[in-house]
Amino acid sequence: MSFTDQSQEDSSMVHCVARVRRAADHPQIRHAKSKLLVLDSDQETLQAIVEVAKPYFQVIQTSDPQWAMAWLGQYRDVTVFLVDEDLQQNNGSQLLLRSQAMRPEVLRVLMSRSVDDPRVVQSLQRGIAQTLLEKPMSREALLAAIVPQAVEQNDTPHLIVA
User: Fold this and answer.
1) CA 162-68-4 angle, 5° bins
2) Residue pLDDT, tens place only, 62-121
3) All structural domains of the chain with their residue ranges
């Protein structure tokens, strides 16, 4: 990477952090107790998750991995990070690994259409993802994965299949 590319990347990150700060100042987000951060490139999936989760969480949704990581790094009230494995520019397992280093207390949930994908299996085996949701998922499977009362609080990985 050249110096020019790094400068552009740094500028992009500064812009991204500014967008995160503006979003965090929204009154509904600022005063909510527990937040679910959802990262998926499919807008229909994002909307479906919001509808199911909003009675339990303030849902922060994005399709931008850089924005999601900036939010996670800056705000301490995220309790669940729900990430799709098959993002356009990244894979969810890599992002969950980074999030684990940043915020180990956050519940990390990986979504995937292919539960036997080696990256997904390795992510569960290594404890990078604590829960796996197979896409498409049922409403009940999603709630079992993200609502704290429905998830056992131990280090055993969970597979939730719709």
Assistant:
1) 135
2) 999 999 999 999 888 899 999 999 887 788 999 999 999 999 999 999 999 998 999 999
3) 3-160
